[in-house]
Amino acid sequence: MTKIPYKINLSEDELPKYWQNIRPYMQEAPDPFINPVTFKPCTADDLRPVFCDELIEQELDNTNKFIEIQEEIRDFYKMYRPSPLTRAYNLEKALGTPAEIYYKFEGTNTSGSHKLNSAVAQVYYAKQQGLTHLTTETGAGQWGTALSMACGYFGIDLSVYMVKVSAEQKPYRKAVMETYGARVIPSPSDTTEVGRRILAENPGTGGSLGCAISEAMEVSMKTDNCRYVLGSVLNHVVLHQSIIGLETKLGLDKYGVQPDIVIGCAGGGSNLGGLITPFMADKLEGKNNIHFIAVEPASCPSLTRGRYAFDFGDTGQTTPLMRMYTLGSGFMPSPNHSGGLRYHGMSPIVSKLYHDGMMEARSVEQTKVFEAATMFCRCEGTLPAPESSHAIRVAMDEAIKCRETGEKKVIVFGLTGTGYFDLAAYQAYNQGTMVDYVPTDEDLEKGFATLPKVEY
Ligand SMILES: Cc1ncc(COP(=O)(O)O)c(C=O)c1O
């Protein structure tokens, strides 16, 4: 039998030429977006003032299983893709587990995460449409950095609203984004009406992704030749991220490896949705029985403690309504160290798959996450992002279970990025000052009270 190498690398020629769309495989597609004024499903025209035309088409496409990746996007991808799929031999040994552990590493580009996979596609379509400006939000900073890189490459002006607490925790993120040519504004800010309103109501707030989205959307609507772009949650972002799963499957297939468990961290659901797409498509067609696990922070538990309801994507309540697992757009997550997972909602695709019983969700506390991250970096070398480390935690827990049962399961997880900008978090963990935040039921009720009453 061929020995499986530490790194399964694909050649440039093997870079997928199509993204895979999970929706046509689902028995029932996720509910359509609802216009919050008419309470009717959103049409492409409803979305046109905010989003790029091609992205709207992809967003509403529940039919085509494969969508071509344009050559210009593939050429950009080739600078950092195919990304490595690594067999975690060293971690397996340290855990003393009979399980096989693999991780798909998306942190090999400067932005340090998978976010670039969608950023380059979104900016390419904006450029094709003749747009000159884009706005966005960023939590951890990875999406803002990725979009800055893509905008720098295609020559598009970019404003990034960065969640204030993350901007304070990671000042060098701002420097990187500015180097690529973007403007970075900590959110909430006084540059928008919605920002001023949020600040007036809650002056000490550290912000949230929901606030930053509201601000970025407001600016895009008020700026000529400008659109808003989002780094997660939406169907087209999950579509672009399917490149992660397609490459993973191709790599595993080369060695005849079939996963038993596939694990991803879940903030807005894009890396998880993308990683699982080809495996889930097969599961939906009855070709496998893989166990999928979404991992979220205990401090922001949208899948494990949220409600499956129509909700706004932003705190200012300006987006279309999406049916998703949500803590309510008014939920203010505590300032934990995984900025990219501090979002009140979840991708409608991931939410629907979870609601239909196609996957499990687990929440984990941040000290346990950093314990896993520390062990991982000592064994495998790579310093993982706190977000990614949620997946590491559960992969390790599953491998430890295998040690106890003697099962030789194949565990695959998404290592979405690196943690070089998260060293304040590592420092807090190392010094023993990191604390866990778990919202009480009362805290959650306050968020649920902000859910809109939707008759659809
Ligand atoms: C490294 C990393 N992993 C995961 C996430 C979570 O996002 P998503 O659930 O859309 O993949 C983020 C978001 O910022 C991130 O930066």
Automatic annotation (TrEMBL):
Annotated ranges, domain Tryptophan synthase beta chain-like PALP: 80-417
EC number(s) reported in the record: 4.2.1.20
Catalysed reaction, written as an equation: (1S,2R)-1-C-(indol-3-yl)glycerol 3-phosphate + L-serine = D-glyceraldehyde 3-phosphate + L-tryptophan + H2O
GO cellular component: cytoplasm
Alphabetized Pfam families for the sequence: PALP (PF00291)
InterPro entries on file: Trp_synth_b-like, Trp_synth_beta/beta-like, TrpB-like_PALP, TrpB-like_PALP_sf
UniProt keyword Lyase present: yes
Cofactor dependence: pyridoxal 5'-phosphate
Pathway assigned in UniProt: Amino-acid biosynthesis; L-tryptophan biosynthesis; L-tryptophan from chorismate: step 5/5
Enzyme class: lyase
Keywords attached to this entry: Amino-acid biosynthesis, Aromatic amino acid biosynthesis, Lyase, Pyridoxal phosphate, Tryptophan biosynthesis
GO molecular function, one term: pyridoxal phosphate binding
Self-association state and partner proteins as the record states: Tetramer of two alpha and two beta chains.
Function: The beta subunit is responsible for the synthesis of L-tryptophan from indole and L-serine.
Similarity section: Belongs to the TrpB family.
Protein name: tryptophan synthase
Species this chain originates from: Phascolarctobacterium faecium
Upper classification of the organism: Bacteria, Bacillati, Bacillota, Negativicutes, Acidaminococcales
